[in-house]
Design goal:
2 domains; alpha/beta; binds cobalt (II) ion
């Protein structure tokens, strides 16, 4: 589907809002007063991996942060601020790191050629490759990309779990679980890879 103008989008927005109001006339009014999501979603910016739609949840149910290849960098103030707000103010119960197979960011990081500025961001993926060199050694190139997509999720779950924010929350006894999921863009299915509820140190 190709849309030609912003007018098309405004029209689609009106139809969407009217559709929701038909089922629940107070939906937007109620939601405008507060948000109480139980989930923080950290996912890839890829247009094929939209957080709410994949888990079939309406507005108000998921707090979302997305970047290229769903990376959680130790010193990324953007991502850390999202995590802090989600954990300390919204008091989410679950943080989901969601990767996806066939991720363009992962593919680019595995290439030897230059991509410009983004290569600085993709360094973090190259680190994941280096940390897991033994697991990748005897893997064919096509499988390597998908395996790296999974290994990246595991690494980012580790990074979320080791933020001062999540460590402090666990220290205070918060019921907070960090989940690692991966999405298959070929069939729309999510798979759980790991979870960490702070019982064991990572
Ligand atoms: Co991606």
């Amino acid at each position: 589907m190709k849309l030609n103008s912003i007018k098309d989008l405004i029209k689609r927005n009106r139809d969407w809002a009217n559709g929701i109001k038909k089922d629940d006339p107070d939906f937007f009014l109620t939601l405008s007063k507060q948000q109480t999501p139980d989930y923080l979603w950290i996912g890839c910016s890829d247009s094929r991996v939209p957080a709410n739609q994949i888990i079939n949840l309406p507005p108000g149910e998921v707090f979302v942060h997305r970047n290229i290849a769903n990376v959680v960098v130790h010193s990324d103030l953007n991502c850390l601020s999202v995590i802090q707000y989600a954990v300390e103010v919204l008091k989410v119960k679950h943080i989901i790191v969601c990767g996806h197979y066939g991720c363009g960011g992962i593919k680019a990081a595995l290439e030897d050629r230059s991509h410009g500025l983004i290569d600085n961001w993709l360094r973090h993926i190259k680190d994941v490759k280096r940390f897991n060199a033994d697991k990748l050694l005897n893997t064919a190139h096509d499988e390597k990309i998908d395996l790296m997509c999974e290994l990246n999720v595991l690494e980012q779950v580790n990074n979320v779990s080791n933020t001062t924010i999540v460590q402090d929350a666990w220290e205070k006894g918060a019921h907070l679980t960090v989940h690692g999921l991966i999405y298959n863009i070929e069939n729309g299915i999510l798979k759980e890879l790991t979870e960490n509820s702070g019982v064991t140190k990572v």
